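Notes from the pairing session

We agreed to fold both candidates in a single pass and log them together. This is the raw record for the first candidate, unedited. Please don't reformat it; downstream parsing expects exactly this layout.

Candidate A
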Amino acid sequence: MTTTRNWIRAGVTASLATTLVCAAGSAAAQVKIGVTLSATGPAASLGIPEKNTIALLPKEIGGKSIEYIVLDDGSDTSHAVQNTHKLIDEDHVDAIIGSTVTPNSLAMIDVVSAAKTPMISMAASAAIIAPMDAKRAWVFKTPQNDGLMADAIASSMEKQGVKSVGFIGFADAYGENWYTVFSQAAAAHHLKVVANERYNRTDASVTGQVLKIVASNPDAVLIAGSGTPSALPAKTLKERGYKGRVYQTHGVANNDFLRVCGKDCDGELLPAGPVLVTEQLPDSNPVKASSQAYRTAYEKAYGAGSVSTFGGHAWDAGHLLERAIPEALKTAQPGTPAFREALRSALENVKDMAGAHGIFNMTQTDHNGLDKRARVMVEIVDGKWKLQGE
């Protein structure tokens, strides 16, 4: 509790100072995993299921007990960086999972690379792991790359006869990256982007942006946001009488978004990880069994219908470490630079690992390792997720 009080006095939010330690067996765990995620703030609907999932991760791997030290960064970039420094400098963790959102994860790269501590991000942007360089050699991520999902959206639009698209996204690295990757996917699928608008995650109104989009008369609109803030443009489009197709990114694939958006989001389409609709997948789907395993574990702990794709990213991060730690232990012991390097190398060589979202095949140049098996197209129908063909 002393550490918690010190962090509150340092001006970090009280929620940031809430530390969850999950240890098995002894008080001094043999492998320490630091976690920073966004359990409060605008990204809370993503970070809460991630935090819940950490409690479900293995407490012993390779004969070593595992300690998870979990901090809340409040969806704030500076707090994510502070947490990362604390986990490395004070707690001396062997690896870090986090953060929830792209801006936070990007800001953490300099810290983990300088400390030569492997990090597994739960944020989506490919910029977190690419282009590969000396710093990103220490960074991995479990969510599907935005480009993979953008291609699914553009392909669906083309099949729906869409020719023109209006774009509205977050005014940060997430929105900027989505505009870049979607513009590329749109060109490949013969679509024209006729509007490009941005808004902040904390904005209370996007009426001006939506009026500009509606004035451009697009066949479809893509909302490039994540979590509950993505409901605002959807509701405003409905209020302004927009009749075209509306698409979201995989950043909205949780029940909190459905609750906030309500009937205004019925009929919207989005790409998502298979775990979102695992019970609707055919038995032949290679991800059905592994995604169902996560869903079963999560809903046993937190109730029927509570599963979230975002928690699945934390689950996959934990199981990547479950694969990598025994390999690293062949080279060195936890708490040493040699172990952290061995762990980084082992993560880079994970092959054919079935997770909640897909099949992971990491390489030296691809620290995500997912392919098209990690995506499905989903429609919101009567407030529920319905599997669609791509």
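Candidate B (folded immediately after A)
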Amino acid sequence: MKIGVVTWTLGLTAPAQAIAKARELGLDAIQYAGDFRDCSGSQLRQEAAAAGMRILAIDPFNAGPVQPDQASEQGAIAYYRKVIDFAVEAGHVPVTLQGLSQWTRNCPDKASAQSRLLACCKAVDAYAQEKGVRTLYEVCNHYEVPLIHTSDACRELISQVGGDNMRMILDSFHMNVNEPDPLATIRRNAAFTAIYHISDSGRGGIGSGHIDFRAQFDALLASGFTGDVAIEPVLPHRTPSLPPATGADAQLLDQEIMRSAAAWRSYLGGPVAA
């Protein structure tokens, strides 16, 4: 099990900087929250290989349309095809698709939005399969995305897409908002989950809120989880989605990440430092 960080929380998209920071924090992987507009996939692959780091996924943070009122199915698919091509260059790294829901905001009603999302997911997943890339869909809370707020909704979407290429990302923070029983959610979906995200109830690191991470860890492993984890904390004064603004902020965030990694490693029974 690799322990990484989701790089948007760091405010870094340059591969060398993001990877160097992850190594500095004692981690062994990154979930890269950048895309083809930030660098080349081959550059990302080379930087990660040189540092001995694994790339868990390509997770484009600014994945929505530039002009939401002009979003379209064709535009969404064209954008994500470029992300898939980037992922191929990065080493056939999995790509997250939850950003596709942002391309539905101009739909007249929920039914048409869900129809567009499904069509986009089918087309992008088919293209990803042709290229040898797995797709992932993160279940995010209703304050942040327009669709797919629960694991059940995500499993239904994946079932409608068909095949066995798409998997799920579960996030402790998002589950705390939208899942009535996060532990039951983990038990139902652990074997179907590729990445588990770590952030506490207030979106800080482990121990900053009320989530029982040891219980979630036990539920994951007991239920067949074989994936990796990515730490995704945000400072209280920077929530919901703002990276550090100052050097002092960066130091505080580093502490949240390192404490979380140490706690998770203690559950694994291994050393707390990389």
